[in-house]
Predict the 3D structure of the following.
Amino acid sequence: MARDSLPVDPRPVFPRDAPPPPARGWGIAELHAHTSASDGVPSPGALVQRADELGLDVLAVTDHDTIDGARRARDIAAATNARVEIIVGMEVTSRRQDHVVGLFLEHPVPIFRPLVETVEAIQAQGGLAIVAHPFLGVPTSISATRLLRALAHVRFDGIETENQYFRERTRAEARRFQEMHAERVGAALGATDAHFGDLGRALTLFPGRTAAELRAAIAERTALPARGGLEHPRPALADHARNQFRSLVKLPVMRARTLWRQRRGTGP
């Protein structure tokens, strides 16, 4: 069937340049989003509502070093009969500050542990370990050298090769790395890293509609990274201020408490 004859997907966030859909159609997943439980601006409920408005099938709530917001989002989605399905996730900070997104979590993951140990802790509880925004050249973004070193000891389940913070050079580097090391680094995925409710700037397409089908597509590497088809307005100055306060004040305090509980053996 010619592209011009394909039916137009009505969902606002659907990528404009999506390839022809599989038999089950394309599901749309946002795999990296933050709420006010960490340094995001929207509340968990507001994020669920926005995901529904945009037509997302699956939303992974991945706050920094906590799953509290994700659990609340999941409960709100169930209570309000939201169409979007919520994955409980967490963006975990490792000892070297490399960030790993854990998906399908049951429990919080210990923070500030060695990278290999972080991946193993995610996978030990049945979760998927995703390399978050690699090769950006900032402390929270893993380098190719450190990632290769980790791959000698563990396998990841996926890597973000599409992210709103990527420039073309970084995007190309992440894609090349995934193609060269797919057996150990996993599927190529798209994820926004949304902090302002700006969901869907970067997406993952997958055959089906459910979180279970998404998980299968990640395992089979049939999921596809994509850029979303919707432009978001610039965040207001007040929202930037909230984000910065939560990042610079709230998160350090929260992490200090978590580390104290870990040392006492009463936390993750």
In short: The chain has a mean pLDDT of 94. The radius of gyration is 18 Å. Residues 23-228 form a domain with the TIM Barrel fold (CATH 3.20.20.140). The helical segments are 44-54, 68-79, 115-124, 144-151, 168-180, 182-185, 211-220, 237-264.
